[in-house]
Amino acid sequence: MSRKYKFRDNEKLYFVSFAVVHWIDVFIRNEYRQVLLDSLRYCQEKKGLEVYAYCLMTSHVHLIISSQGKPLAEILRDFKSFTSTQLRKAITENPQESRKEWMLWVMERAGKRNGNNKGFQFWQQHNHPIVLNSNFLIQQKLDYLHNNPVEAGFVEQPEDYIYSSARDYAGTKGLLDILLIE
């Protein structure tokens, strides 16, 4: 992996994105989105994760984060590991999931091809952290993150998408407690 994309200073702001293997649209169901939101809350409360912005799309997640505690690489590793297990369970146990067999087959196939896994892979391997060391970069990533649902055609205005911190930045309480970038 390139040395360019690593967490070097946990107190700096980072933009990270991670996606489901093969960009499967898992997060179209509320119960799957809830697993992610609950896990982010847990990381905030118990692991020192500071969330400044987020956007949960159907197949991927964007975050602007930092930490005053545990290293960010460890927090994200634990987050991805835990949510992978929980989401696999949620998919398996969901009687309404018409794509269950296909999704599990794709994830098992991806896991068997990756020696870092135990026969199952939910998330793609990399987080691609980008340090946000200037106001220009912070604004660019914040705009990109919040405009993602608009570009996807889900909403007309960023603040209309409930699975995003754009609501918080527009003055409406969102689904996750965040720290605003001033």
UniProtKB/TrEMBL annotation:
SMART domains per the UniProt record, alphabetical: Y1_Tnp
Domain Transposase IS200-like: 11-148
Pfam families: Y1_Tnp
Protein's recorded name: Transposase
Organism the protein comes from: Rufibacter roseus
